[in-house]
Amino acid sequence: MEEKKSETEIEPPAKRFHTDHQASQLASYNGTPLELKCINTIRALAADMVQKANSGHPGAPMGCAPMAHLLWSAASAGGAGRNHSAASPQWWNRDRFVLSNGHACALQYVMLHLSGYEDCSMDQLKAFRQVGSKTPGHPENFLTKGVEVCTGPLGQGISNAVGMAIAAKHLGANFNTPDFPDIISSKTYVICGDGCLQEGISGEACSLAGHLGLGDLIVLYDDNHITIDGSTEISFTEDVNKRYEAYGWQVITVDDVANGLDDLRAAIDAAKTTTDKPTLIKVRTTIGYGSPNKQGKASSHGAPLGAGEVETVKSRLYGMDPTKSFFIDEDVAAYYKQQAVEGEIARAVWEEKFANYKEAHPEKAAELQRRFNHELTEGVFDDLPTFVFGRDKADSTRKFSEMCLNAVAPKMPELMGGSADLTDSNYTAIKGAVSFQKATPEGSIIHFGVREHAMSAICNGMFSYGGMRPFCATFLQFAGYAMGAIRLSALAKHGVIYIMTHDSIGLGEDGPTHQPVEMLESLRAMPNINVVRPADLNEMAAAYQIALNGVQTPTVICCSRAGVSALEHSSRDKAMKGGYIIRPEEGEGAPDLVLLATGSEVGRCVDAAKALSEHSIRTRVVSMPCQEVFLEQSESYRRSVLPGNVPTLSVEAGAEHGWHRWSHAQIGMTRFGMSGPLEQLFVKFGFDAENVASKGKELVEFYKNLGGNVPDLNARPSFDSFKGPVH
Amino acid sequence: MEEKKSETEIEPPAKRFHTDHQASQLASYNGTPLELKCINTIRALAADMVQKANSGHPGAPMGCAPMAHLLWSAASAGGAGRNHSAASPQWWNRDRFVLSNGHACALQYVMLHLSGYEDCSMDQLKAFRQVGSKTPGHPENFLTKGVEVCTGPLGQGISNAVGMAIAAKHLGANFNTPDFPDIISSKTYVICGDGCLQEGISGEACSLAGHLGLGDLIVLYDDNHITIDGSTEISFTEDVNKRYEAYGWQVITVDDVANGLDDLRAAIDAAKTTTDKPTLIKVRTTIGYGSPNKQGKASSHGAPLGAGEVETVKSRLYGMDPTKSFFIDEDVAAYYKQQAVEGEIARAVWEEKFANYKEAHPEKAAELQRRFNHELTEGVFDDLPTFVFGRDKADSTRKFSEMCLNAVAPKMPELMGGSADLTDSNYTAIKGAVSFQKATPEGSIIHFGVREHAMSAICNGMFSYGGMRPFCATFLQFAGYAMGAIRLSALAKHGVIYIMTHDSIGLGEDGPTHQPVEMLESLRAMPNINVVRPADLNEMAAAYQIALNGVQTPTVICCSRAGVSALEHSSRDKAMKGGYIIRPEEGEGAPDLVLLATGSEVGRCVDAAKALSEHSIRTRVVSMPCQEVFLEQSESYRRSVLPGNVPTLSVEAGAEHGWHRWSHAQIGMTRFGMSGPLEQLFVKFGFDAENVASKGKELVEFYKNLGGNVPDLNARPSFDSFKGPVH
After folding, report:
1. I need a labelling partner for B153 at 20 to 30 A (CA). Which of A128, A268, B187, B615 fits?
2. Where do the domains of chain A lie, and which CATH numbers do they carry?
């Protein structure tokens, strides 16, 4: 979260071979010389990477190197014995590691390299922060195997980790058996800094983690007393330990890791044996450890140390040759290779176990396999309901969402989630489903509490764990609370399903604080996310189909609070194209007018079209539940729906902002809403059929007066400048 | 945050005059009969309001009525002795009250009514939640005098209150004198529920409040054990008291307020005498108190109780006649009238004091007056720097922002704020300014810590307090963390200044987690907010002028991390129009092409235009630092800048999403960015001058091939359906 200031640094002259410092570091070190050399190697490599990139964060890796050493060391070597596998980075039962202070990622890449992960070759370490490398400036799960989630936006990683621990506990409860009690038994380890703990999202997530008693979650807090602005004394003087105890966590303090690992080792052991609550280990560290001019200072945080300083650092660290860069001595390489071997053995043991499990419990094994492959169950969409005009009663689209959720849930046990304390408003209850609680980890309904941001981040973590399709819910307006995490669903390709109800001024009396105006457009501006706003039950069924198919793309399903009109020509299949003609114009030839709408406004447009046809204005109504999916259709299909050169009026009870792409004129919100009964609001803001018809007529006349010269919205080239992959 | 479910409720038969219950309520009540009758009147009125509106939240007002009674009672009556004035609701030194659980607003309106506030007449109580009333579904400061901020989105109000307490402490430190030690000496009282305390934003704000030792902040926590989804046992079992102690707060528990106020009274007294730390008073309450079928249940939270139940409630409460609605007995009315009189006396005393202060310290008094009037100082813009092409060196626009901030700050002492721990990246340091800390409350730089959401909410609170122009800063990407509060700046008309740096992929190596793509568009979709993205120093000066002039409109100033080109024809005056021709086309007549850009892309477009003129494509470049301000200009001015029927290519290193309004084709981001040196990224994503020129040429040829038929983007009617006030 910082940047280089190297241009302003004064580089001290390098003093080569500070044998005195080396000796004193070793003398005060309470451990083996090799261990110290290993840790120093991590420090030096991280400093080298940042120096070569001329950009990045050396301080945290140097301070956290002892933690990383233990986390990447086998139990037999006195390490954490974390199960992971360079040969099979996606091994289901690996113990997850999340670097929540993602700016320290040089540390993670170094450890992945030392452990033999292919994506972090020495060449990649040298290509740190360069275009096209697998070692970007913050960890990106979709680029680098061994990285679980995108971290760097502070507080996200630790909250993702809560989701991972939830997924592990839930899957273990459902798939472990008396004869195979540990098929899913992974732990989740986190390193985080004070920044992560200052962010509100981590407070939300960790309060829930304490409530749920997630004993397999172990957080190492890099307590270096330094923030970017200086000492933590200027802004962060709370008693963190006490706060985490208040959340119901076990809290352990380790006063020093620079001079020996015994205390941290004991703390991790205590954390591993505590099964009923998560553990926070507060580890006192020194940022930039080893840098004589910068250690313990903010200046070591976000800028290269400087070539001279890096050399000085190495000369002061036991076992480091200051003349060598990107150097790993044989004994160090051999040490980590051996640790990695133990990880591979653990995986092999597990795989044999799983083979036996497969024989003993073939259905469970196959189900796990399906779920980790993110395959949908056969016929999962078969029970999605159909709305038959004339037969069925119209309702709110949130009600339709509930019907669809309940139609797919029985066939999708991996669908796990819930609402941020609005279950009966979001209509996200699933019939017969059990609440996920300390005593009932098999349950699939999460009561997230009033914690929208953590809810979204937890869903990201659950998705990243594998075997899960998380969903979550709140009012659409409060997507604004969760935007930091929703964005990471999109970036990190987590197919989370967001059910966002009360999607416009149609929320009514709660008023403008709760009525979204800009939210639909805010979300549509984001890459790799489907924003679906269905107009009725058939379109809602399509929304669920789009959402569940979108394994690498999150979906936001926007639902009305109030009832919508019964639509004669709605279609699930057509809605799957993102946009379609829901009411054809009368007669032959191009229509006189196109009304383009989404969600609860579609029915009003159909009514308006009927009125307009009485004025001999042949009006087509297009329903566009999902712009993103519509854009994926062929140009000819898109033109067949939206001719472009026919006067087009878009109608959405949200900001007009992005609709100029699709329409010549807009009826939308140009201000905030107000408190009152929704029908009065719809009239007040012009979304009633009468106003739509009147404005439609006006639009047709506008162009008639211009001699029929309608600007062709389709006559515009697209210059997508970058033709590479979506990520 | 909930809604009516009245249709599903079974209404029990009303039992009139439950004299036995009445008697027992009085018997167990440890206070005066009148006091109990007052509290019951509040309960009944709130229940009536929700019932009449057939929408709203009766439970919290009924549970919190005892707290409200004390907070609106004078010290002489054993109340909190809160200073406020119905006759002068904006009295500077009033003790602020924030109903953070805004859904309980019936309570606030009732209290304002009983205290004689004009905006909450009996007619307004009866118009609760109706279109055009001053009693909307959640409190709105711009509608109702006596309401300080918009609350309802949970966690915001309590965080606003932290800002109010900061403002009071800071103003007191700067304006009180030995002879007048309490000109600014207000306290800030909050009622909040568990929802507010679950939200991360409140954790951020309260941690900072503890750090800063805000002794004049007193929070009453309505601990009713109920959330919308049921008991707090399902999601919120942390030890709240311990958490607040960890933040450095004084914490007091009150076990009961239904049967007497002595404990709460003592707690408030203790809070008022504690000056070095804020106080949380956890008050055990019963939601829906008095409702035999719904008290203590989630069903009393967000739905009318039902007419029968309301009648039953009244019959069970001492002093209530169940046959009467909206009834205030004479003794009750007289009681609150008397309390209000004491408030007016307190104000009169203060006003006399202020008159004397004015004589003794005329400059200070005038300055306070100016600041509370939100008047700018004379000549505040005079020292804004000017960029002279050929003379001055180009730099990053964040550097230019620093220059402008430092140019206005000496003349604007009310400018108070800082960064979310990115001071040296956001360049928000003000020369010579002192940090606002416990020991230095006169300081104007706030070290917010890594707390973007609370930072924004605190700024809202500071603005609402009066006398302050708050600013705050982070990376533009992390506006996503703060969106819930930024939106309330816009809705509540708080002229907060957001300085958001690192505004595109130009951030470089930190990668896509830190590179905003959608953020500019997300913000532009929001009503009542200026999004300014200056291209150089002259435009930055305009940005500060727009921001400071926007007393009722927040402004987001978007700044580049990296250097921008020196621009020959940039102009502060022209930039004040939101958009202008920064490079005219050659020769006479309409140009062949318009390049439209913002910020760091403007210089690249100028370079592209020069290259195109060599191909005889007469190219105009338009810089549009602020769309919102441009839209306020006359149509003729807008057409003179953007003809509409000339091929127009927009270039912004952000989402293309909203640019279709302005341009025929776009160069923008259609995916997330990547980690790498910024110049390589600009080329990779097509923002280099060469690609801009090439695409510009292509666009001209595209329309040539269509026979010169360029769709006229200005030939579109505007249907702003609602012609009322902006709010």
Report:
1. B187
2. 6-346 (3.40.50.970), 397-558 (3.40.50.970), 578-705 (3.40.50.920)
